[in-house]
Specification:
Strand content: 15-25%
CATH topology of the largest domain: Peroxisomal Thiolase, Chain A, domain 1
Helix content: 25-40%
Distance between the termini: 19 Å
Number of strands: 13
Shape: globular
Oligomer: single chain
Bound molecules: coenzyme A
CATH superfamily of the largest domain: Thiolase/Chalcone synthase
Largest sheet: 5 strands, mixed
CATH class of the largest domain: Alpha Beta
Length: 335
């Protein structure tokens, strides 16, 4: 059985910075409320005409990751693309990346697991490498939220939280004989699917129905989130799945050198940090600058932590995520 390691990381966020004060001009909110409840100071939004889409941002992040891995698009044997905001309803974003990057006719798989998407995607890629089927897989998380949020007061609990961006990792067969991805742990609990969801447009609301009905009336085009319910479940599941991963590898919380939690809310990250008794230097957060970028949040944070020299060879790096579905997961990586 082979193992895989991350051989290259990259990220991209749009240039357009949207501050809390900018949002308070559109809806009844304010900088103090947003910072106190979420830790977010600003986020990036795609600007009309800047050329960015979910797939375009994915390509920009992937180009950096590939270069750092010392590979070209022709070396990639599979794409695993996590997003809840693909450019099109179908086909998924993976095929767009394949085309834009000029890759061979490699398999392109979209993962639909929202905030847990990147951890799920890493796990899928890891299995293909473990079995020996592929040597180099491009794993992406990219999201364009800003085009689909409700910027009136009605949508304020959701629209202040989410931002746009992309991150990518190249997973490579580990021929170094040390470290790599130790294990991944995935879960779901569909009974909570309605607590954080965007029900339409979808096959629940096919086009004739959309045309017939006044969209304002019944069809939920904007994401819905039961914030407190999500919060309570998140703090339990994050801790559980991190401990599950540690136990599977006979490790303890004191072995963690760097925890990269999905950037859902700074309060959630701080709660987990306290619960696991981790130091500030052992947890990386950048939600202050980008908001919650869903599937992109972990690869963006991982890339930045690595760029800042906070991840060194031999470190135990833990990725952990929780989100809509509910779904959650962790990945234990020896760097
Ligand atoms: N600005 C100002 N006030 C706002 C607001 C905003 N952007 N959004 C909501 N409010 C108001 C509410 O309307 C409510 O007002 P009321 O008391 O008059 O009814 C009040 O603030 C408190 O709302 P509540 O939802 O109870 O706040 P909260 O403390 O739970 O914080 C979240 C809201 C969304 C920040 C918090 O629940 C959260 O972060 N949940 C987890 C979300 C998450 O992580 N999602 C991603 C999962 S991957």
């Amino acid at each position: 059985m082979y193992t895989s390691r991350i051989s290259g990381l990259g990220s991209y966020v749009p240039e357009n910075i949207v501050t809390n004060d900018d949002l308070s001009k559109l809806m009844d909110t304010n900088d103090e409320w947003i910072q106190e409840r979420t830790g977010i100071k600003e986020r990036r939004h795609i600007k009309k005409g800047d050329g960015n889409t979910t797939s375009v941002m994915a390509v920009k992040a992937s180009e950096i990751a590939l270069e750092r891995a010392g590979l070209t698009p022709k070396d990639i044997e599979m794409i695993v693309f996590a997003t809840l905001s693909p450019d099109m309803y179908f086909p998924g974003g993976g095929v767009e990346v394949q085309e834009m990057m000029g890759m061979d006719t490699v398999p392109a798989l979209d993962v639909r697991n929202q905030c847990s998407g990147f951890v799920y995607a890493i796990s899928v890629a890891d299995q293909f490498i473990k079995t020996g089927m592929y040597k180099n897989i491009l794993v992406i998380g990219s999201e364009h939220h800003s085009g689909g949020l409700d910027y009136t007061t009605r949508g304020r609990n959701v629209s202040v939280i989410f931002g746009d961006g992309a991150g990518a990792a190249v997973l490579t067969r580990n021929e170094t004989g040390r470290g790599g991805i130790l294990s991944t742990h995935l879960h779901s609990e569909g009974k909570h699917k309605d607590e954080l969801a965007l029900p339409g447009p979808s096959t629940s609301y096919w086009v004739p129905e959309i045309i017939e009905k006044n969209p304002q009336e019944n069809i939920p085009y904007y994401p819905y989130m039961n914030g407190q319910f999500v919060f309570k479940h998140a703090i339990v599941r994050f801790s559980e799945v991190i401990k599950e991963g540690l136990q599977a590898n006979n490790l303890t919380t004191s072995d963690i050198d760097m925890l990269i939690p999905h950037q859902a809310n700074l309060r959630i990250s701080q709660f987990i940090q306290r619960k696991l008794k981790l130091g500030d230097e052992n947890v990386y957060n950048n939600i202050q600058r980008y908001g919650n970028t869903t599937a992109a949040s972990i690869p963006i944070a991982l890339t930045e932590a690595w760029e800042e020299g906070k991840i060194k060879e031999g470190d135990l790096v833990v990725l952990a995520a929780f989100g809509s579905g509910f779904t959650w997961g962790s990945a234990m990586i020896r760097w």
